[in-house]
Amino acid sequence: MTKDPPKTGHAGWEPLPREQMPNATYFPAGLAMGTTFILWSFITTWVVGLVGIGLFAAALAGWITALRHERKRQ
């Protein structure tokens, strides 16, 4: 009497391929904060808008750079 190893999943399903998850970053939060500052500047002052544009641009550039380095690593 042989014991079969326990099956994971249902019959007919294929296992998922091993994929590496992307690294966690703060860049999406920076984009959201920059967008919030830009929109907030419409009811406050243009200085808040400049800060928002700077934060948005820095977060976007950082996120794109991180994605490019991650793609080269694979």
Characterization of the model:
This protein is mostly helical and 74 residues long. The chain has a domain at 27-73. The chain contains two helices and no strands. Helix 1 (27-40) runs antiparallel to helix 2. The longest helix has 28 residues, at 46-73.
Number of strands: 0
Low-confidence stretches: none
Helix content: 55-70%
Mean pLDDT across every amino acid position: 86
Structural class: mainly alpha
Main pleated sheet:
none
Helix segment count?
A: 2
End-to-end C-alpha gap: 45 Å
Percentage of residues in DSSP E strands: under 5%
Rg of Cα set: 22 Å
Question: What is the 3D shape?
Answer: elongated
SSE ordering: HH
Short description:
The protein is an all-alpha fold.
Topology summary:
Elements (H helix, E strand, L loop, with lengths): L26 H14 L5 H28 L1
Helix pairs in contact: 1-2
Features:
single chain, 74 residues, mainly alpha
